[in-house]
Specification:
This protein is α+β, with helices and mostly antiparallel strands and about 290 residues long. The protein is built from 5 helices and 14 strands. The radius of gyration is 23 Å and the shape is elongated.
């Protein structure tokens, strides 16, 4: 008679969460409005107002450590394919195995905590002060004007920056964090041309963080269902739905873009706008010529 455990789903969730962190798919937009202004003379400004989700600070990242107390696993009869009640001997065997593996579990949890902290700029996600540390980290960086913790890894932020576009630009960039799947990228080309890509503003783009995040979540939900435990999938965190608007305003020449309606003239110049939702397939992109 073999044993199938509900802890398999928890362990798989923790592993999948760590895998997403390692790929950089651990920060995603929620509800937001974002605007990029590109003007001749290499003047630019960028704003992002709305939600940002940090996977490492959500309940998902803590699922692997949820079962620190012994929980009897259901027993399984490989001949009848049934789940009979465990005998006293089987329960005692499970408990003995649990106790024997206590040190290994402690070491594994410590290792995972170190890996998580390394990917969170040194912030330990299991620390009760982790969210406060992240708020402090962001607010000391230029551009982060407001950061409010909404709970379970979700923050309401206002980011605004302006200046001279003398080098490539990416948002977000966080001190101490590894390379993050970007929401918006600006690449400067010769001839005063600027390539704008916004991979983070597409839930279905292969290069966007939402694609990796949602792919991982689908897999974890399946693993939870396979555990056979009633309600096993209910512990999946409530990831904010991507929903918002990305706008580019420029007095330059728009060489290319993938909006549905094209450029619209405004008092500030030509305007490109994308409505972003979970159904958005193509990440916003444009090529702007700022030469005089």
């Amino acid at each position: 008679m073999g044993i199938v455990g509900s802890t398999r789903a928890k362990a798989a969730a923790a592993l999948a969460a760590l895998s997403l962190l390692l790929t950089g798919c651990f920060i995603t937009p929620g509800k937001f409005n974002s605007e990029l202004v590109l003007m001749k003379g290499d003047r630019f400004s960028y704003t992002y107002e709305g939600e940002i989700f940090f996977l490492g600070l959500s309940s998902l990242a803590q699922m692997g450590a949820a079962g620190e107390e012994f929980e009897a696993e259901p027993c399984y009869d490989e001949e009848t394919y049934e789940d009979p009640e465990c005998t006293e001997a089987e329960l005692a065997e499970q408990r003995a195995e649990w106790d024997a593996n206590a040190e290994a579990r402690t070491q594994e949890a410590a290792q995972e905590a170190e890996q998580m902290a390394a990917l969170m700029g040194g912030i330990d996600p299991s620390d009760p002060e982790a969210t406060a540390e992240l708020v402090q980290l962001l607010e000391r960086q230029r551009g982060w004007q407001s950061v409010v913790d909404k709970g379970d890894g979700v923050f309401e932020v206002r980011y605004a920056i302006e200046g001279t576009l003398s080098h490539d630009f990416q948002f977000p960039v966080i001190e101490g964090f590894p390379t993050i799947s970007p929401f918006v990228q600006l690449y400067l080309r010769k001839g005063d041309q600027v390539r704008v890509n916004a991979p983070g503003f597409s839930a279905q783009s292969d290069n966007g963080p939402m694609a990796g995040m949602m792919g991982g979540m689908v897999g974890m939900a399946g693993l939870a269902a396979m555990s056979g435990e009633e309600g096993a999938g209910e512990a999946m965190p409530d990831i904010p739905t991507i929903e918002g608007t990305f706008t580019i305003v420029t007095d330059g020449i728009i060489r290319a873009n993938n909006t549905d309606e094209g450029a619209v003239p405004t008092a500030r110049g030509q305007e490109l706008s994308w409505d972003i939702s979970p159904r958005t397939q193509a990440a916003p992109t444009a090529l702007i010529d700022l030469s005089n």
